[in-house]
Design goal:
alpha+beta
Length: 130
């Protein structure tokens, strides 16, 4: 009986970890209109960071690190919810997560919102790779 309870608790804890991992590594569904909250470009580290904000105030930070002129060498990263879990996720090259970020940026560009060159730059790098 004790082993069954311990096994059940372990299973619940593992499922909890899987749920948290899914939450912090998935690309959120931002509600339109999506605006660019902040753009940071760090020349010394060759990184470009854009913070997108949706209509409900949810933030999504996405960026590239590396030379944007060489799409194969620029690494994509994002932070889903930096206020709750400040976890930086580096999706694999040409992964489904990278494609979801590409689709999100495409939606931002096509929404008719004032276009930001940083968003266009990240979108261009991802589009060239996929």
């Amino acid at each position: 009986m004790m082993k069954s309870i311990a096994l059940s608790v372990l299973l619940v804890v593992l499922l909890g970890f899987v749920g948290v991992q899914y939450y912090i590594t998935s690309v959120p569904g931002l509600e339109a209109p999506i605006t660019v909250g902040e753009v940071r470009q760090v020349e010394s580290e060759k990184s470009l960071v854009v913070i997108l904000v949706d209509s409900e105030g949810q933030r999504f930070t996405v960026g590239l690190r590396g030379d944007t002129a060489k799409p194969e060498e620029a690494a994509l990263f994002y932070i889903r919810n930096p206020d709750v879990v400040p976890y930086v996720f580096w999706p694999s090259f040409r992964s489904n997560d990278e494609k979801r970020v590409l689709e999100l940026l495409e939606d931002v560009i096509e929404s008719g919102a004032p276009e930001d060159p940083a968003v266009r730059s990240i979108y261009g790098v991802l589009k060239e790779r996929n």
